Amino acid sequence: MNVDNAKSQMRKGMLDYCIMLLLNEKPYYTSDIIQRLKEANLLVVEGTLYPLLTRLKNDGVLSYEWQESTQGPPRKYYVLTDEGREALSQMDAAWNELESTIHMIKLRV
Amino acid sequence: MNVDNAKSQMRKGMLDYCIMLLLNEKPYYTSDIIQRLKEANLLVVEGTLYPLLTRLKNDGVLSYEWQESTQGPPRKYYVLTDEGREALSQMDAAWNELESTIHMIKLRV
DNA sequence: TATTAATACCTTGTATAACCTAGTACTGTA
DNA sequence: TACAGTACTAGGTTATACAAGGTATTAATA
User: Fold this and answer.
1) What gap in Å lies between CA A93 and CA B4, rounded to an integer?
2) What is the reported pLDDT for A108?
3) Distance between CA atoms of A103 and A100, rounded to whole angstroms?
4) Is B106 on the interface with A (CB under 8 A)?
5) CA 20 to 30 Å from A51, out of A20, A59, A70, B60?
């Protein structure tokens, strides 16, 4: 059995949630997000992140603001919209449900 | 944003893990598994489960034994192999890692 | 003995859609 | 001009999960 594949399948669909959790703290731009996720042991590359952020923006859960940078071109800082906060709370519920499912199976309840 | 889709994406890849957890208790046949997962709020249908069990068997993590039934045709009871138990412990680790990743992001550690 | 119902097993084809690879292009700075 | 830091995209790969249909065995009944 290819456990690495199993792991990557497990992570599937978590990225959206993780990014929304991050942006619930404060606005971040792409490199920030990659860095923060890396610190939490979630490796993500640009080619993954940009389309995902665009998708979330088109879904209405994110918006962005341009901000000047002291070293280089301006950056897009993404923020969670009101709709995003609402979606996030539903994602929280979904995550809790998933955790509880696993625990139920583990404990034979 | 379609939260239902997000939920189903989150669940992706969890089925393998859940089934291996179940079979770590004792042998089950297909209808048992569907029933047990249902009790844990994980709805699965036959068309999903059969190919999955076959895949896990071909991967060497499961094997099966035929058992007579008192009411109907014989059943295939699936059991976890030694290799399966080893894979399961790695899946446990992967799950714990995922949980910890989410918690790290939530707690801004 | 034939027929039907119930239970079990299984396969094919498709939707989904996430994710990654491998680039391009623009902007500011040295 | 060269370089580094941004932003972005087209195209391909991959695998899960499901819907829908088919086969085989047993039990019950006419």
Assistant:
1) 12
2) 76
3) 5
4) yes
5) A70
State the residue for tokens 């949980």. Answer: B99
Residues 14-53 of B with CB under 8 A from A: 14, 16-18, 21-22, 25, 36-37, 39-42
| pLDDT, tens only, A12-33 | 999 999 999 999 999 999 999 9
Q: Is A45:A35 a contact under the CB 8 Å cutoff?
A: no
Measured between alpha carbons, how far is A73 from B106 in angstroms, rounded to an integer?
30
Name residue, tokens 């606005």. Answer: A27
pTM: predicted TM-score of the whole model, two decimal places: 0.92
Euclidean distance between CA atoms B35 and B43, whole angstroms: 9
Whole-angstrom distance, CA of residue B15 vs CA of residue B7: 13
pLDDT for B39-81, tens place per residue? 999 999 999 999 999 999 999 999 999 999 988 999 999 999 9
**B19-56 per-residue burial string, b: 16 or more CB within 10 A, e: under 16:** bbbbbbeebbbbebbbebbeebebebeeeebeebbeeb
**CA-based nearest residue in chain A for residue B90:** A3
**Confidence at residue A109, expressed as pLDDT on a 0 to 100 scale:** 54
Instruction: Answer whether A59's CB lies under 8 Å from B1's CB.
Output: yes
**Helical H runs in B12-81?**
14-25, 30-39, 46-58
**What CA–CA distance (Å, rounded) separates A100 from B25?**
18
